[in-house]
Amino acid sequence: MKTTLDQIAEISIGASISRYSKKYDGEKQKIDVLYCKVNEFYTREGDIAKDIDSKYLTQNGDVIFRLSSPQVAISISENSEIPEGVVVSSKFVIIKPRDVNPDFLAELLNSNIARNQIQKFSEGIIKQIKKNDVARLKFEIPSLEEQKEYVEYINLINKEIKLQKQLLKENIDLKEGIIQKSQGVE
């Protein structure tokens, strides 16, 4: 039976960064803020209010989902590229799964199954989706044990993909080096 995302997770919008940075008159701190370029998540230091609510900071077990196209998700864990304590802006939703493996949920949100549903809800030239539409996404949720098995397989596949991308980049660089050498460029 399909379940909507809001039935298996608490979903909230990230912080309005302008409210907690430029327009904020109180004491500020240097803290990492979450960004996403295409499908790569990264952080950049920003001046953010010292008293920002902790609900806007990444926590272990969260799934962060980008609302604008391309919509992508990442789970926050000891192994993820994004650590705990990073400010999440209103360009993302923070998903706190209940009885669902966060890594499994992130992979599910990155799948074509989710993309097909998202396409129906997307609006505007940049193809954004609203928090309420994220909550309405429907999925089959297997048992926690099955989710764990799927995540183990997916992690192995992701490692293989990363290695293949690295090999491809090295081969492209090697090819360019050969061409440059043929032209007397060192």
Summarize the structure in short:
The protein is α+β, with helices and mostly antiparallel strands. The protein is built from six helices and eight strands, in the order E-H-E-H-E-E-E-E-E-H-H-H-E-H.
Give descriptors for this structure.
single chain, 38% helix, 4-stranded antiparallel sheet, two-stranded antiparallel sheet, 6 helices, 186 residues, alpha+beta
Please give a structural write-up.
The protein is of the alpha+beta class and 186 residues long. The chain is built from six helices and eight strands, in the order E-H-E-H-E-E-E-E-E-H-H-H-E-H. The protein has helices at 5-8, 17-20, 102-109, 112-121, 131-135, 144-182, and strands spanning 2-4, 9-13, 28-37, 40-49, 63-66, 73-75, 92-97, 138-140. A four-stranded antiparallel beta sheet has the order 2-7-5-6. A two-stranded antiparallel ribbon has the order 1-8. The N and C termini lie far apart (62 Å).
Class derived from helix and strand content: alpha+beta
What is the spatial order of strands in the main beta sheet?
A: 2-7-5-6
Question: What is the percent of helical residues?
Answer: 25-40%
The residue ranges in which pLDDT falls below 50 over 5 or more consecutive positions are none
**CA radius of gyration:** 19 Å
Kindly estimate the percentage of residues that lie in beta strands according to DSSP: 15-25%
Shape: globular
Distance between the termini: 62 Å
How many helices? The count is: 6
Q: What is the chain-wise order of helices and strands?
A: EHEHEEEEEHHHEH
Average pLDDT confidence is: 92
